[in-house]
Write a structure and sequence with these properties.
The structure holds two protein chains of two kinds.
Chain A lengths: L4 H15 L4 H20 L8 E3 L10 E3 L2 H21 L6 H19 L3 H19 L5 H32 L4 H10 L5 H14 L11 H7 L2 H25 L5 H19 L3 H22 L2 H32 L4 H6 L6 H14 L6 H12 L3 H18 L19 H12 L1 H9 L5 H4 L1 H21 L13 H21 L1
Antiparallel strand pairs in A: 1-2
Helix pairs in contact in A: 1-2, 1-4, 2-3, 2-4, 3-4, 3-10, 3-13, 3-18, 4-5, 4-10, 5-6, 5-10, 6-8, 6-9, 6-22, 7-10, 8-10, 8-22, 9-10, 9-12, 10-12, 10-13, 11-12, 11-17, 12-13, 12-17, 13-15, 13-16, 13-18, 15-18, 17-21
Chain B lengths: L5 H18 L3 H21 L22 H32 L4 H22 L2 H9 L1
Helix pairs in contact in B: 1-2, 2-3
Classes of the chains: A mainly alpha, B mainly alpha.
Chain lengths: 511, 139
C-alpha cells in the first residue's frame, strides 16, 4: 500500500510543521526526499504490483480506487519537478510556517487527484485545491490579490456545485462512483437520457477549474496577482488538475466534439488577450489559457497518439511556464514592475541569468525546434487529424509567437554583469527537461511516439509559424483597438459559467 | 404535490442562488447566495436516492420500511464541511476588503481595485529615472 503514502506524507509533514513551527523548512526538504523516493519506486519495473489498489481495504463498491496509470505517472513527474524548482526558489526567502503548510497541502492534493479513480473523491480534492490556492494567491494580503482570490473562490465554488449535481446524477443512475463502474454502465446503454445532462454538468463544473474559456474568467487575475512561486505552481501544475479530470471524463462519457470546440475558443481567446496584454505576468496567465487549448484539441482528436501527446505537452508546458513565472518574479523584484515596456527599459538592471531564463522559456513556448515546446508539440501536430484541428493549432502557434514577440527587445544588449540572480539553481532544474526533453519523452511514451519530432516538414512548419507570428506582431501593434478586460469581472464570469453549461448540454444532447 | 420533491426544491434554490450572485451587488448578499447554491447541491445529492416512506439509514432499524441509501448521506458530510470552510474564509476576505474600502458594494470595490492597480504602475513610471539611466548607459 504505497499509493496512499504519496498524498498522505504531505499531510503528515504539513501537520508536523503546524505542531513544531521551527521544522517548517525541514519538512519541505523531507517532502522532497519522500516524493523523489516514492516516484522513483513508481517508475521502477517493480511498480506493477502497486499499480492499483482500493484505499483502506474497502470493497470496490464503496471504496476509493487509486491507480498508477500513465496519466498519473506523467503528472507525478511534473509535480516532483516543479516542487524541486519551487523549493529551491523559495529557499532564500523567509518562509512563514503557514505558507509551508499550505504548500504541502497543495502538493499533496495534486498527488491525490492524479491517483484517484473516484468521482466524489475528485470533487473533494478539487475543493481542497481551491481553498489552498485561494489562501496562497492572497498570501501577501495586497488588495488586488485579495480581490482576485475572492473572485476565484466564488466562481470555483459555483463550478464545483455544478460538478456535485453531475456527481449526484451519475450516482443515481450508476449506483457507484468509480470510473470503471460508470464506464460499464455508459457502454451498456449509451443512449440513456441521463448521460448528456450528467456529462454536461461534470464538464462545465470542472472547466471552471481547468482554465477553459469562457468558464475560467477568474484565471488571468488570480494567476498574475499571486506571488511568483505560487504563480508557477498554479499555472504549471494546479490548472492541469482540471485537465486531468477532463481526460478521465472523456474516457468514460462520449463527449464528441465538445472538447474541440472548447479548445478552439480557449486557445484563440487566450492568444488574442495575450497579444493585447501589456503586463508580463498577465500575458503569461493568458498563455496558460492558450496552451490549455492545445491540450483540449489533442484530447478532442481522440486517438492514442494524440492522448500521449496531451500528456507530453502537459509535462512540457509545466516546465517552461514555471520557468517563465519564476524568472518574471525575479525581474519584478529587481525592476519593481511587470509592465513589459518598463522591463525593457530597465533591462540592463535585470541579471543576465534571469534574462537567459526568460529567453529559454520564450523559445520553448513558441515551439522552436531543439526545445521541449517543439518536441512535445510535434507528435500532437502529427496526431491531430482533420483540417479544423490543424488550422486551430496553426493559429494557436501564430498567436503564441506574436504575443511573445513583445518580449524580444528584452534580450537585446547591453550585456553586463549586474547583481546576481538568487534563483538561478531553480532555473537549472527546469532548464534540464526543457533542453533534454527527447530522452524523457522516449522513456515515457516509447520510440514510435517521438518519430514526428524528426519529421523535417513539421520542423519547417514550426519555424514558419514562429516567423508568421513575428510578422503578425508587427501588424497588430499598430492597432489601437484592444479586447475589453471588463469580461474578467465577477458577474460576467458567473454568467459565463451558466451560459457555457447550457451550450455544452445542447451540444451533447443534439450532436 | 407530486412534483415537490427534494430535487425540485434543490433546483429552485440553485436558480435563486445563481441569479442573486449575478444580479445583487452587495458582497455579503453574494456570499449568502453562494451558500444557497452550495446547499442546493447538498440537498440534491441527498434526495437523489430518497423516496417518501423510506427510513433514515440509522441503526437500529425501527420500522420495516425500506432504508434510504446511506452513501450519499455520508458523502454530503464532506460537502457540508467544505462549504462551511469556503463561506468562513470568503467572509474573512470580505471583511478585509470592507476594512479597506468601507463598502460592500461589489462594483465599487472592483473599480477601486482596478484604479489602485493602474496608479501603482504609473507611480513606478513617475518616480523611476530609468529613461536617463538607459541613455547614460548607451552613451
Amino acid at each position: 500500500m504505497i499509493l496512499p503514502l504519496l498524498p498522505l506524507s504531505h499531510v503528515f509533514l504539513g501537520l508536523m510543521a503546524i505542531a513544531w513551527k521551527a521544522s517548517a523548512r525541514a519538512t519541505l526538504i523531507a517532502a522532497l526526499f519522500v516524493d523523489i523516493g516514492l516516484v522513483t519506486v513508481a517508475f521502477s519495473p517493480a511498480a506493477h504490483w502497486l499499480s492499483s489498489a482500493v484505499a483502506g481495504g474497502w470493497t470496490d463498491a464503496i471504496g476509493i480506487r487509486l491507480a498508477l496509470d500513465s496519466l498519473a505517472l506523467d503528472l507525478l513527474l511534473l509535480t516532483v519537478l516543479l516542487e524541486l524548482a519551487v523549493v529551491i526558489y523559495l529557499w532564500r526567502q523567509r518562509l512563514r510556517p503557514t505558507f509551508v503548510i499550505l504548500l504541502q497541502f497543495l502538493v499533496g492534493g495534486v498527488m491525490a487527484l492524479v491517483l484517484t479513480q473516484d468521482l466524489f473523491n475528485i470533487y473533494v480534492i478539487l475543493e481542497l485545491l481551491t481553498l489552498v490556492s485561494f489562501l496562497l494567491v492572497a498570501y501577501d494580503r495586497r488588495t488586488f490579490q485579495i480581490w482576485a482570490s475572492l473572485k476565484y473562490l466564488i466562481l470555483a465554488s459555483v463550478g464545483m456545485s455544478v460538478f456535485l449535481l453531475g456527481v449526484a446524477i451519475v450516482y443515481a443512475n450508476v449506483g457507484r462512483l468509480g470510473f470503471a463502474a460508470i464506464e460499464r454502465t455508459v457502454v451498456g446503454d449509451p443512449q440513456a437520457g441521463w448521460i448528456p445532462l450528467a456529462a454536461a454538468l461534470l464538464v462545465a463544473g470542472v472547466s471552471v477549474k481547468a482554465g477553459i474559456l469562457t468558464f475560467s474568467l477568474w484565471l488571468p487575475d488570480a494567476h498574475s496577482a499571486a506571488p511568483a512561486a505560487i504563480s508557477a505552481f498554479l499555472s504549471g501544475l494546479v490548472i492541469k488538475m482540471g485537465v486531468v479530470v477532463l481526460i478521465r471524463l472523456a474516457g468514460v462519457f462520449p463527449l464528441g466534439s465538445v472538447l474541440q470546440i472548447l479548445g478552439a475558443i480557449t486557445g484563440i481567446g487566450g492568444a488574442i488577450y495575450a497579444m493585447s496584454s501589456k503586463d508580463l505576468k498577465r500575458m503569461l496567465a493568458f498563455h496558460t489559457l492558450s496552451q490549455i487549448g492545445y491540450l483540449l484539441i489533442g484530447m478532442g482528436a481522440a486517438n492514442e497518439a494524440a492522448a500521449k501527446g496531451v500528456l507530453a505537452y502537459a509535462l512540457a508546458h509545466g516546465s517552461f511556464k514555471a520557468l517563465l513565472f519564476l524568472a518574471a518574479g525575479v525581474a519584478y523584484d529587481v525592476v519593481g514592475s511587470t509592465e513589459i515596456t518598463e522591463l525593457i527599459r530597465a533591462r540592463h538592471r535585470i541579471p543576465l541569468r534571469t534574462r537567459a531564463a526568460l529567453l529559454l522559456g520564450t523559445l520553448a513556448i513558441i515551439g522552436l525546434p531543439p526545445f521541449d515546446g517543439y518536441i512535445a508539440k510535434a507528435p500532437l501536430l502529427a496526431a491531430a487529424h482533420g483540417w479544423g484541428n490543424q488550422i486551430i493549432l496553426l493559429l494557436l502557434g501564430i498567436g503564441t509567437a506574436a504575443s511573445f514577440a513583445k518580449l524580444l527587445p528584452l534580450f537585446k544588449g547591453p550585456y553586463r554583469r549586474v547583481g546576481n540572480d538568487p534563483a538561478w539553481k531553480s532555473y537549472v532544474v527546469l532548464a534540464l527537461p526543457i533542453a533534454l526533453f527527447l530522452p524523457i519523452e522516449r522513456a515515457l511514451f516509447g520510440a514510435a511516439f517521438i518519430l514526428p519530432v524528426m519529421d523535417w516538414i513539421i520542423a519547417v512548419e514550426s519555424v514558419a509559424v514562429v516567423t508568421t507570428g513575428l510578422l503578425v506582431h508587427r501588424i497588430y501593434r499598430r492597432f489601437t483597438v484592444r479586447p475589453s478586460e471588463r469580461l474578467f469581472r465577477l458577474e460576467p464570469g458567473m454568467f459565463a459559467i451558466l451560459l457555457g453549461f447550457v451550450a455544452i448540454y445542447l451540444l451533447l444532447k443534439l450532436g | 404535490m407530486g412534483w415537490l420533491s427534494g430535487m425540485t426544491i434543490a433546483m429552485i434554490l440553485f436558480a435563486i442562488g445563481t441569479t442573486a450572485l449575478i444580479v445583487r451587488k452587495d458582497l455579503v448578499v453574494k456570499l449568502l447566495a453562494l451558500g444557497l447554491v452550495n446547499s442546493s447541491g447538498i440537498l440534491f445529492l441527498i434526495s437523489i436516492r430518497f423516496r417518501p416512506q423510506m427510513e433514515a439509514p440509522i441503526l437500529p432499524v425501527k420500522t420495516g420500511l425500506p432504508i434510504a441509501d446511506p452513501l450519499p448521506q455520508a458523502l454530503v458530510l464532506s460537502a457540508i464541511v467544505i462549504n462551511f470552510a469556503i463561506l468562513a474564509l470568503s467572509l474573512v476576505f470580505v471583511m478585509l476588503l470592507v476594512e479597506r474600502y468601507h463598502s460592500t458594494d461589489c462594483g465599487r470595490i472592483e473599480h477601486a481595485v482596478e484604479t489602485e492597480k493602474a496608479t501603482l504602475g504609473s507611480q513606478n513610471l513617475a518616480d523611476d529615472t530609468l529613461e536617463s539611466e538607459v541613455q547614460a548607459a548607451d552613451r
